[in-house]
Amino acid sequence: MVSLRSDLAVTRRLKSSRRRQEADRTRRFAGEIRLRASICLFFALFGVFSGRLSASDTNSSLGAWLNAQTNIQTWSAEVVQTRALKSLTQPLTATGHVWFAAPNRFHWELGNPPQTIAVRQAGQMLVIYPKLKRVEKYPLTGEQTGQWRDTLALLEAGFPRSQSELESRFRVIAQTTSNNVHEVTLQPRSPSARRLMPRIKIAFATNDCSLRATELQFADGSTLRNDFTNAVLNPKLTDSTFTPELASDFKVVEPLKPK
Amino acid sequence: MLMSSPRRWLWFVLPIPIALGLARLRLDVEVLNLLPADAPAVQGLKIYQQHFANARELILYVHTADSETTESAARAIAERLRRETNLVAEVTWQAPWLEHPARAAELIAYLWLNQPPEAFGQLTNRLAATNLNSLLTTARDALATSLSPGDLARLSYDPFGLTSLPEGATGSAPHFGEGQEMFTSVDGTFRLLFVKAPSELASYRECAHWLQAVRRTVNEAVPPARRSSDGVAIGYTGRPAFVTEIAGGMERDVTTSVGGTSLIIAMLFWLAHRRWRPMLWLLTLLALILAGTLALGGLIFGMVNVVSMGFAAILLGLAVDYAVVHYQEALAHPDLSVPEIRRAIAPSIFWAAVTTITAFLVLNFGGLPGLAQLGSLVGVGVGLSALVMIFAFLPPLFPDRSQPGPKTTETTQAHEPKASRPLRPTVTRSVFVGTGLLIFSASGALFSGHPRMDATANALRPRNSQAYAALETIKQQLNQKREPLWLIVEGRNEGEVARRLGQVAPLLDEAVSYHLLSGFTLPTALWPRPELQAANRAAARQLAAERQLLRVCALSNGFASNSLALTEGILDAWQQESAATGVFWPTNPMSAWVFEKLVARTPTNFYALGLLHTAGDSATLSPAAFAHLEWQLPRDGVWLSGWELLGGAILSSVKSNLWKLVLPMAGLVLLSLWLAFHRFAEVVLSLSILFISGLCLLAVMRVSGWSWNLLNLMALPLILGTGVDYSIFMQLALRRHRGDLTIAYRSVGRALLLCGATAVSGFGSLAWSSNAGMASLGQVCAVGIAGNMLISVFLLPVWWKTFVGQESNAESPEPESAPAQSSRFHSRLARPSRLYRAELWQIGLAIARKLPPRTAAGLSRVLADVYWTLARRRRAVVVRNLLPPFGGDRAAAEKTGRDLLRNFAGKLADLWRYESGQPIARMFDELTGWEHFAAAQSTGRGVLLLTPHLGNWEFGAPLLAQRGVKLLVITLAEPHGRLTGIRQASRARWGIETVVIGHDPFAFVDIIRRLEAGATVALLMDRPPQESAVIVELFGRKFAASIAAAELARASGCVLLPVYLLRRDNGYTAHILPEIAYERAALREREARHTLTQEIMRAFEPAIRQHPDQWYHFVPIWL
After folding, report:
1. Which of B175, B508, B752, B1063 is the most buried (most CB within 10 A)?
2. Where are the alpha helices (DSSP H) in B946-1001?
3. For residue B1047, what pLDDT band results from cuts at 50, 70 and 90?
4. CA within 13 Å, CB half, B812
5. B68, A191: Cβ pair inside 8 Å?
6. Has residue A56 been placed in a domain?
7. Strand, helix or coil at B1080?
8. Is the pLDDT of residue B1006 over 50?
9. What is the rounded CA–CA span in Å between residue B23 and residue A170?
């Protein structure tokens, strides 16, 4: 799930825990080599679990952020989407907005006026092209294959509900912290997802665990980055947010329906 | 081994044709060649196999518990195999356009060229210079806002939207974002790899070697240790795997079935006789027979199919019977020589072989070429077995019995069978209760239903096949509930195929509307349209010429150079094809991969493959449901086919042809039974056995869950043809032993059990065949034959004793004491052959009128041989009649007997020619002794020409007629009154008068008067009526001759002239012997007349001794 302010208490707890870690690190500097050696030995013995161990044990920032997701019921933010495609000489930028409601409903809008709207409901996802007056309906029951599954992955990146969910879908391959922003690089476990998107990055603030950015890397090296601003934690959202009204002249298609 | 020189040379020469035949032999593993070639379903399947099934392609599957491991393993295997460039031409493990997207350009270019000019025109307009910027801007906007990774990928590398073909343009071709569902399951844990061999795998051995090498390479890529640790399952299927399995199965089947049957034969023979030498010699001969039959199969057929290889075990089980019978006879009659045993047994062997061969040859009418070949091979093998066992089995085992020992003039007979004692009531009751229980139990088992009929083609498939199991796994994992049916469209050119595709599409739509089909895929969209291509070439050339403009616009709108690779490829293809004139077929590897699934091209024909998805459950698929659709489809160049249709279609054909097998077999069985028994009750008993064993067979099938299928239906004529022998042998033995069950069982019962057990083992060994149909055929035949055998051995004797035994005791088939012989002799005289009747005589006359002499002569020889073989009693009588002239030499008598019958048949043919009015003057060659006749005539007395049944005595009359001598013939009344008239009329045509004398003594009065007047009269001396018979001596034996000649001499004083006409190579030669002088006055005494009669017969003795093969007596003549 997206990090949020959660509560000051949590933030404070995180801050205090961070201070404590720094103090501990300072105090134990002398034994760092030994610690690293131990860690390396530990990784050598249990290397297969190193990813999980890195995600869960060696980096509490990610853990804290993941824990914070459980407190999110709704979330909204402005988004600037930057698409750096290898086939283009310059990146493409679009602005938009995103709304989220637990456990898994979202509403993405890109463009102003919106060029593309993606709404996930309980049993289906709608992709609306206002300009084309076209709605694509994707059922969420049954098998999710191919492009449809990849689309969902693209839209849901950054909204894990739990650590176990994240770990079931991704492998953590790198983590960095810079300027109070912690960036986690994930690799999809699914080969087909990995084929299309070999890397996904999630960046969140270390102070309040708020989601700052997500970035998807495609197989050809292209990237799609969402930078979130003006995030609001647990705003009041109505059901109409996730139930868009469709004009009667909109053509509804079901691309996955057999012909 | 004592052999004559010719036979010794035969053993040296024989290996040559055997080696030639074996060298020519090829194994045919194509299952479709078992089926009738003219069946549309088979034709369609063959076309599919030949053009679409890709005989070089092996399909591997990789299955693990998680998708990542599966992909890793599949990738490792693909990469490893690709390194083996000598072993593998190509490995495809994902959609080719995903691996090499640039190769899609040619196909896209082709699809555009196939569009109507209006559609291509719309593309041209879209790519007009004035539209390019807006087009590219739209693309950029979409790239900026689309949420579909697929669209992002497509637009990135296709800014001009060339991959957005008009709706319906791709049709059956996969969309370029898709295709993985052809290679992987939904959850990714199951993947397929397609591995293509570098060259055609022409033989099954090449398939086997190549598959082995691929397996080795796969094991290197994914070692067994990793497989077990990661839980990697790998399976192989596709034609190379099937061919290897089927061929390997064939080899194993032959080895297993032949080896197993041979072992059982050896065991049974040992248990029965406890002798090594005959057992080993038997096995040696069986091996030679098998090799010989295979060699003959190679010479006759060249290719032997998978079903036909089952012949070996069947043949072993049948061939051993002939050896067993010979051996039993040799042991039971130690006084008989090998040739004598051979003569005694050969007829029954002949009959048994004929029925068995016929039963198997009848399979040629079953409509299944595979089974026809099996039947022919077994038929050839049985014939060879009969010959080999008759002539080669006994001599090495009994070298001291190669020549007959000194014998009396009569055949030594076995002990005179005595009439047997009646059966105990408890035995009778037990057997009948047992019979009743058997019928009741079998009926009870069938009460719940009959064995079902399996209408699928599963009988053609191999059993326990890993390749098929892999195929089923693939279908299950890729969610293909059922194989589609195939619609194959053929044409001499692209236009013809396109036209036919257009014809079938609406019919298939209609089939979908009434739920026969759930859907269909035709390659219509992929099929080239030459006229559209020609129409679009100019526009394509124009677009290709604008590539620089397109490039500049794209780059100026922010697209990088690499975004234009696909566009450039399409333009290249258009540029190339716009300069060509022929039909554009895309040919790069990706296009070839797509097209080979649905299209095939040969130098003369084009083929398109459509896939029809049936509605409903596969269990309910029936050819009848598709009959209407098939009827609607164009007759020429369109085939509806598929494995699921095949079974039902072939089964219908088999069922419709079944009457052609069963009726002739039933007729042959009835004929065999009648000729064997000539007794209604015994025929009914044999038929009852067939009925009850059939009931038991159905019950066993029902209880065991076996079903009828298109192969084991052929068991019906086989069981009829082979099973009936047991009841024949048993009942004949019971007759021979006059109902003594104990002796009959000891002499024949054990032999039947042994023979039956070997036949059952031969058929039963097929139950382990790798082919499902052959296994079921073997099972059904084994059970059917076992039922026949067991009932014949254990139940039939009591039935026979109860219903037939009394009647049989009243008959005496063998010669008895002298007084009984004499009375029987007279009764025999009154009973000529049943064939001697007016109707058949008239048929003979009619045939003689139509056929040329040579043809008639040849036909008569064949019929004589058949009669000699079939008519055992007459044959025995003829041989016995010939023993005195040969001094008791039975061998000479038997040989001469056959010649006698042939000569008699030739004589009949000549007689019919004569009596039908055909000219016969040319048939006469020489006449000797005419001076005797002239001298007799010059005396002014009557001339009595005397002749025995030697040569063609009938021709004396026309011979004399030629010389102007009118003849009066004295004859007895024929057995059928009408025949007497017919023959009289025939002679009258030649001016010959016939006097028929019966038992009226006054008939001679007129003859005496004629003789006194100087007439020439002819009289037969032998086989006289009882009233005029006297016993004389001929060849030292008592013989009945006619005293009428002496009587007539006394009464008229006529001249007695012995005459006879013999057939030589150049024609008939007539011999008139000197007059038999007598004292008329002395003939007043009967004794003198008796002596004169003796003298007359003695005058014929030299001629008869010299030409016994023309001395025609078919009733006993010796007293």
Report:
1. B752
2. 956-962, 977-989
3. very high
4. 10
5. yes
6. yes
7. coil
8. yes
9. 64
> CA separation (Å) from A237 to A169, A212, A234, B149?
28, 21, 8, 29
Would you state the structure tokens that stand for residue B503, as one six-digit string? 């014809």
Mean pLDDT of B624-642: 83
Read off the pTM.
0.62
Partners of A111 on chain B (C-beta within 8 Å) are: 144-145
**B852 with B858: CB under 8 angstroms?**
no
C-beta separation of B736 from B808 below 8 A: no
CB atoms within 10 A of CB B346: 18
The tokens describing B942, both together, are 């009557």
Residue given tokens 């493990």 in the structure block? B93
Read off the pLDDT band of B173 (50, 70, 90).
low
- Interface contacts A/B by beta carbons within 8 Å: 92
Which two three-digit tokens encode residue B462? 């191999």
DSSP-assigned letters across all residues of B515-553: TSEEEEE-TTTTS--HHHHHHHHHHHHHHHHTHHHHHHH
Burial class (CB in 10 A: 0-12, 13-18, 19+), B1079: exposed
Nearest residue to B314 (alpha-carbon basis) of B621, B758, B715: B758
Whether the pLDDT of residue A39 is over 80: the answer is no
Do the Cβ atoms of B149 and A147 come within 8 Å? yes
**Residue B647, token pair as written in the block:** 């079974």
Check if A141 contacts B (Cβ < 8 Å): no
Evaluate whether B875 touches B344 at the Cβ level (below 8 Å).
no
For chain B, the residue count is: 1119
Residue A104 is assigned to a structural domain of this protein: yes
**A197 contacts on B by Cβ (under 8 Å):** 149
Question: Is residue A234 included in any domain, yes or no?
Answer: yes
Q: Nearest chain B residue to A90 by CA: give it.
A: B558
Q: Give the whole-angstrom CA distance, residue B608 versus residue B172.
A: 12
State the Cα angle at B824 between B822 and B826, rounded to 5°: 75
Q: What is the number of domains present in chain A?
A: 1
pLDDT at B1087 over 50: yes
**A197-227 burial: b if 16+ Cβ within 10 Å, else e:** bebbbbbbbbebbbbbbbbbbbeeebbbbbb
Contacts of A87 in chain B (CB under 8 A): 156-157, 159, 559-560, 562-563
CA distance B547 to chain A (A): 18
CATH number of the domain at A102, please.
Answer: 2.50.20.10
Contact B156 A85 (CB under 8 A): yes
CA B928 to CA B951: how far, in whole Å?
15
- Residue B622: per-residue pLDDT: 61
CA pseudo-torsion sign B201, B205, B211, B216? negative
pLDDT digits (tens, 9 = 90+) for B645-695: 777 777 777 778 778 778 887 888 888 788 777 888 888 999 999 999 999
Structural domain containing residue A101: 28-253
The yes-or-no verdict on residue B815 having pLDDT over 50 is: no
| Structural domain includes residue A8 | no
Q: How far is CA A238 from CA A124, A233, B332, in A?
A: 18, 15, 109
| Stretch (H or E) spanning B610 | strand B606-614
Give the residue-averaged pLDDT of B362-386: 86
Quickly count: other Cβ atoms within 10 Å of residue A254's Cβ: 12
Q: Kindly report, residue by residue over B521-580, the tens digit of the pLDDT.
A: 888 888 999 999 999 999 999 999 999 999 999 999 999 998 999 999 999 999 999 888
Among A87, A93, A111, beta carbon nearest to B560: A87
Lowest mean pLDDT among B355-359, B396-400, B960-964: B355-359
**How many C-beta atoms surround the C-beta of residue B509 within 10 A?**
11
Query: pLDDT tens across B190-241, in order?
Result: 999 999 999 888 777 888 899 999 999 999 999 988 888 889 999 999 888 9
- Across the interface, of B68, B157, B188, the residue whose CB is closest to A87 is B157
